[in-house]
Write a structure and sequence with these properties.
It comes from Nocardia jinanensis. By secondary structure, this protein is an alpha/beta fold. The protein has eight helices and eight strands; from the N terminus they run E-H-E-H-H-H-E-E-H-E-H-E-H-E-H-E.
């Protein structure tokens, strides 16, 4: 299962929400956070993890050996914060773009849990149709757009979400910071989940 998290603007809590979702994932499959924010990664820096181990090292390993497969290498590049395994993105946007654009071949064979048996939670940063993370969002089983509960124009936000998520299999807005956002649901015009106030 692939869940893509994204926001309409920066600083909406996409990374925090991805880690929290993975930490509280009910299973039965384990959850893995993939930091795929084209603006650059922050998880390694925030957690004191190795910034060179993650998507960039995985990409280098799979492109160095033609015919190499992601599933066979993925667990060599995963780090753990608390109980949450994650693939860190490089800090610099150009490095993230290059990593997200690198050709790889996926396979369920690996030394850890099979890639196909994971709940992959992708932090895709700001929602943008030309983003290197756009294929992840469109290809996800569900795309969750993180929106602050104190938004000023729900109808405009809903329209923007619908326009930017054309082609997504399933899409919903995840309201953060509003204990009762039910009144906004109709005006958003997009399925909504709610996370209580902070």
């Amino acid at each position: 299962m692939l869940i893509a998290l994204t926001g309409l603007t920066s600083r909406t809590g996409v990374t925090t929400t991805a880690v929290a979702l993975a930490d509280s994932w009910p299973g039965p499959q384990p959850a893995l956070v993939v930091e795929a924010d084209p603006a650059g990664g922050s998880l390694a820096h925030l957690t004191g993890a190795d910034p060179h181990r993650g998507l960039a090292s995985l990409s280098a390993a799979t492109t160095a050996s033609p015919g190499s497969r992601v599933g066979g290498h993925i667990w060599d590049h995963v780090q753990v914060v608390g109980r949450v395994p994650f693939l860190a993105a490089p800090e610099h946007p150009a490095a993230v773009s290059a990593t997200l654009s690198a050709p790889v071949t996926a396979t369920p064979h690996s030394s850890g849990p099979r890639l196909a048996d994971l709940a992959v939670i992708a932090d895709c940063g700001v929602l943008d149709p030309v983003s290197p993370a756009a294929p992840i969002i469109v290809g996800a089983d569900v795309a969750l757009v993180i929106v602050r509960g104190d938004l000023t124009d729900p109808a405009s936000i809903g329209r923007q979400v619908r326009e930017l998520t054309v082609g997504c299999r399933r899409c919903a807005v995840l309201m953060v910071g509003s204990p009762d956002a039910s009144e906004l649901t109709e005006r958003l015009g997009v399925p909504r989940y709610s996370v209580g106030s902070r």
